[in-house]
Write a structure and sequence with these properties.
Radius of gyration: 19 Å
Number of helices: 12
Distance between the termini: 33 Å
Largest sheet: 2 strands, antiparallel
Strand content: under 5%
Structural class: mainly alpha
Order of helices and strands: HEEEHHEHHHHHHEEHHEEH
Helix content: 40-55%
Strand order of the largest sheet: 1-2
Length: 352
């Protein structure tokens, strides 16, 4: 695990102006002409809340929270895209945007060390907590945000109701012996679903549900593996019997896998889940179907996809967030392992 570059917010800081995080980049240069996206603001808030020691974290958290407040359209609705001229695009309300906003708000309410961010995030979470969706990934993101809130505020009625409804709305693993996935095809951020199933089950004390979630995640890890590394689904997804590898593979799938397996490791202590987190990080470093790094060591940005002959060298918000968050998980596990190895020696020293 010594291969992981330490997570840094420097490229995310470059992508973020006083309005919000700019969605796209041309190589490492922000494409302001393409505007801002609420999904990225929610994810940015979650990531920086866990990396509070970074010198850019507080500024980025404040900007992300301000953007989400501006994007909130009442109830569980959030506008999707803001143009550079300050006008919202005429997109319909986005379930994914709302789910990711609640994910970021819940994470910040639980993890942000800055009182104004933590309080503001919880207030906006409470205002938007009525969100519900039939779209599994949107509901999974919202459910994870609600679980984070319950971790620190167990009497939050809105979060508790959202978790209860997520338990009903999230899809169950298929019963077929071969294709266990609850959808006809794998699509994007796939591990988000078993992670949410596990988090919701644990929050509700549902051990059987937790076992089912772990079984589904185990199936997904095997399905997305090839020759010892992860071979993630391409843009367009992958169905039963389709060949691997396929491209473009997206960094968001490595991020979802790292988060899901880290949660599985925290729940079970089984080292195979820690190993899977390491393999998700290794995908960025070059243990992948092409054998190339999917990040820029100079800028700290994540590349926008793994292609048959290399990478898409643009370093947009989603890909960089995925790279930073995955490295944060891998490095956190490395620190935990180092602490565990040092405890017996410390205990022996104190007993002398």
């Amino acid at each position: 695990m010594n291969r992981w570059p330490p997570p840094s917010l420097r490229h995310l800081a470059r992508l973020t102006d006083e309005v919000g995080i700019i969605e796209h980049a041309r190589y490492d240069r922000p494409r302001l002409d393409l505007g801002y996206c609420t999904d990225d603001a929610g994810r940015l808030l979650a990531v920086v809340s866990k990396l509070a020691s970074d010198p850019d974290a507080r500024r980025l958290a404040t900007i992300a929270l301000r953007f989400l407040t501006r994007a909130h359209d009442g109830g569980g609705r959030f506008r999707l895209r803001l143009a550079p001229d300050g006008h919202w695009a005429h997109d319909p309300p986005s379930d994914d945007a709302a789910g990711r906003a609640l994910f970021g708000l819940g994470t910040a309410a639980a993890r942000a060390p800055w009182p104004e961010v933590r309080t503001g995030a919880l207030d906006l979470f409470d205002a938007a907590v009525g969100f519900r969706s039939v779209h599994s990934r949107a509901m999974a993101s919202a459910g994870l945000g609600a679980v984070a809130v319950l971790d620190v505020t167990a009497d939050n009625d809105g979060a508790r109701r959202l978790v209860a409804d997520a338990a009903q709305l999230l899809p169950s693993p298929a019963l077929a012996a071969g294709w266990r996935w609850p959808e006809p095809r794998l699509s994007y951020a796939n591990a988000l679903i078993p992670e949410a199933l596990l988090a919701v089950a644990v929050a509700r004390g549902d051990r059987q549900g937790a076992r089912r979630a772990l079984s589904l995640l185990d199936w997904l890890v095997r399905e997305e593996s090839r020759e010892g590394w992860f071979s993630f689904v391409p843009v367009g997804g992958r169905g039963p019997g389709e060949v691997k590898p396929a491209f473009d593979q997206q960094p968001i799938d490595a991020w979802a896998m790292a988060d899901a397996c880290a949660r599985a490791y925290a729940y079970t202590g089984d080292p195979r889940w820690a190993d899977a987190v390491g393999r998700a990080a290794a995908w960025f470093v070059g243990d992948n179907d092409v054998g190339v790094a999917v990040f820029d060591a100079t800028t700290g940005g994540g590349f926008d996809g793994l292609q048959p002959q290399g990478v898409n060298r643009n370093q947009g918000a989603e890909s960089t967030l995925a790279f930073v968050a995955t490295m944060a998980q891998a490095c956190a596990l490395r620190r935990r392992a180092q602490m565990a190895r040092s405890r017996p020696a410390a205990a022996r020293a104190s007993s002398r």
